[in-house]
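[09:14] KT: can someone run the structure on this one? pasting the chain below
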Amino acid sequence: MNKFDKVKSIFLKDLNWKIFSVVVAVFLWVMVINVKNPVETRKYTVPLNIRSEEFLAEEGYYVTNLEEIEGTPVTITVRGERSSLDTLSKLRDSISAYVNLSKSSINADAGTATCSIETSLPIGSRDSLEIVSQNILNVVFGIEESSSREMAIRVILPDDMKNTRMASNITVEPEMVTITGPKSYVDSVRRVCVYYNSDNPFLNKNRAVYAYNATGDEVENIELDITKADIIVPEKEKVDVEFSANYTGTPAEGYAVTSVVVDDGGKEFFTYGSDLSKAVINLPDIDIEGKSGTVKEEFDITELIPERMELLKPEDPYVEVSVNIMKSDGISDKEEVPQIELQSLNERHRIFSE
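[09:31] RB: done, structure tokens below
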């Protein structure tokens, strides 16, 4: 018997027992592995991410419920060996659930875009682990045709400033804002405004811009190309003011007008943001028909002040005019009376800045 036959007889002798021993060994190995590192399933919950958000915008649509869907909890069930699942638990932040809007199914008539939720495990664990289920398979986005609109920015003033001349001179820069977003939301905007800070007028730069609907609620799901604006308040400028006063009628027989005197009480005026440096306020005529002596009349000049001007002390708007009538010593014809001099208690009524 040669060497080859001897080796052959060793392997073939009691072959059945040898095969049985191998099977038992494998079985025992599998049993040990399953006891120490069994196959399990675990659940993991991760927030839903949204990818390719720009796709629908490029198609001319806006998503109306993007914020509601983004971050939705998605629970997935993963199966694998215990050791692999233990490793995955340490890397749970690397588990992802997402939708890709570029793969969405758009139904313009229904105003929806449907997307399937995709899930993935960290690289390196995909061969030993398997995602067997997830609680949400797809999501439905609300979509709407995009629109844009340009509107003027209004300045909202405190109640005590609304009826002042200064209010009409307050401006805002920039003056216009472009609104973009879903058409129904853009169309619902009724006013765009900034709020004047009366507590500290120096803080009226970079004021936030707000868009409101008809009920006064701030409109969401829109974008403004201008989010900050400057409220421009013109500075007070000095103005020189003169009063013009006259009379009508003829004084009593034998009397003539010798002077017309305006007492403005030292009133001061100012203007906002204009090149106005001088102004004349024309007072109503005083009726002197058949009168003699001194005829006085007081006028409220509130409505007589030219536009763009204001009284420094609006609580005192009265000006007094006196027409002095004296005996004419035989002069009866008005044309023969010496020239009347219009006088004022203040040679010039100057306006100054606080």
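[09:33] KT: thanks! The chain has four domains: 3-35, 37-136, 145-233, 237-350.
[09:34] RB: yep, looked fine to me
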